[in-house]
Amino acid sequence: MRPPPGPILQLLVSTRPGGGPQHVGLLARGLRARGWEPIVAGPADGALFDGFAKARIEMVEAATHRLRPATLVQILALVRRRGVVLVHSHGKGAGVYGRVAARLARIPAVHTLHGIHFERYSPPARAAYLAMERRLSAWSACVVNVSRAQEREGLALRLFDARRSRVIPNAVDVARLGATALARGDARLELKVPVDATIVGAVARFDGVKQLDVLVDAMTRLRGVTLVLVGDGPESARLRALAAQRSLGSRVVFAGEVEGAARLLPAFDVYATPSRKEGMPIAVLEAMALGLPVVASDIPAHREVLGPASAGLVAGTVDAFADALGRLARDADQRAVLGAENRTRARSEFDAREMLEALHALYGQVLRL
Asked: Is-contact 277 213, C-beta < 8 A?
């Protein structure tokens, strides 16, 4: 492949800790190591905005989380001023700005769908979103799907055609995770939880689709177990109120939003994720790579991550999670077996090197290098 001809602009809708921004950070570091010049643009709404700068990645503030003409003008000017050769967008708002700006600048656009979420829209808004996404996909050189399950859904919705789609699963930097993870005791001290407790944990955006209330309710049926929820979001007040209503007290710990939360995962005995829908959950991959047993709702994305025969897959109900978490809390040997299976699977199938090589090759193909 010839040397890259110019910068690639990565557009985000948020710089708060989460799967999409983490993915872009990993991608930007990998691109730079392969000779590309990444520029990241997005709102200064989270800790990762400064985190990109600390990683010596050029970061430009842009209000991609709101629809306004001035933002499109700003991004188009940035593309032209810096000689950007390709725009890669992540998330709905970024996908609008990135693909329109790329079309106006007559350069290729790539868009990654980090999950397809529209079910909570009103019928008119749902129809408008699907129609818009179909048009924007037609303006894309490629639409990247982070899982095979997501690609199947997108094809069924006619969001893109098979010729334009590429499946490149999310992945994690296994070596970096191992090097930065805290020891179990240190992680528990930082989270302010008992060193000798049995901990069930989750790292997630507090959104209805994550169904974290299932975990809170499951705690009412468990004894001697503490639940730690790392994150924040629109469901935060409701989840806290639910924990108070259930009189769970210190048995549910709200740790807040944490940059680089993966380093705290060794504090957990079990990782739990009752999501209703996912694209390809990075936090689950991180937990697996660090050898944690995972209890996950039996949805397509989780089956793809854990494997369809995993003992960690259960129905997304309070009863199912309470039963599975209770069994694992009582059985250290079973936790060890499931954790070892997860570690092997994550390191063999979801290591970042393969993902980065695939995106590197995709860029070269799109730019005809």
From this structure: no
> Does 133 share its domain with 233?
no
Residues 163, 257 within the same domain: no
pLDDT at res. 20 = 86
HEC per residue, 295-313: EEECCHHHHHHHCCCCCCE
* Co-location of 100 and 228 in the same domain: no
Q: Are 221 and 326 in contact (CB under 8 A)?
A: yes
Domain that holds residue 303: 174-349
Residues 150 and 182 in one domain: no
* Residue 114: CA count within 13 A, CB half-sphere: 23
Name, in order, each residue with C-beta under 8 angstroms of 119's C-beta and a sequence gap of 6 or more.
126, 277
Question: Number of structural domains, the chain?
Answer: 2
| Claim to verify: residue 247 and residue 340 sit in the same structural domain | yes
Question: pLDDT, tens digit, for every residue of 223-260?
Answer: 999 999 999 999 999 999 999 999 999 999 999 999 88
Q: What region, left, alpha or beta, does residue 35 occupy, with left being phi > 0 and alpha being psi -120 to 50 degrees?
A: left
Alpha-carbon distance of 213 to 308, in angstroms, equals 25
- Judge whether 1 lies within some domain: no
pLDDT score recorded for residue 118: 87
Instruction: Report which of 285, 20, 305, 298 is spatially closest to residue 148, judged by C-alpha positions.
Output: 305
How far CA 159 is from CA of 104, 131, 154, in Å, comes to 22, 8, 5
C-alpha angle with apex 272: 308 to 193, nearest 5 degrees?
A: 155
Residues 46 and 75 in one domain: yes
Query: Tell me, what's the pLDDT at 179?
Result: 95
Query: In this predicted model, what pLDDT tens digit does every residue of 290-328 receive, in sequence order?
Result: 999 999 999 999 999 999 999 999 999 999 999 999 999
**Together in a domain, 240 and 259:** yes
Q: CA dist 189 to 199, 226, 240, 267, 366, Å?
A: 13, 14, 22, 9, 48
The reported pLDDT for the residue numbered 17 is 84
CATH code of the domain in which 139 resides: 3.40.50.2000
What does the block give as tokens for 243? 């924990």
Q: What is the mean pLDDT of the chain?
A: 94
Burial class (CB in 10 A: 0-12, 13-18, 19+), 13: buried
| Residue 241 and residue 320 in one domain | yes
In this prediction, the residues of the chain whose per-residue pLDDT falls under 50 are none
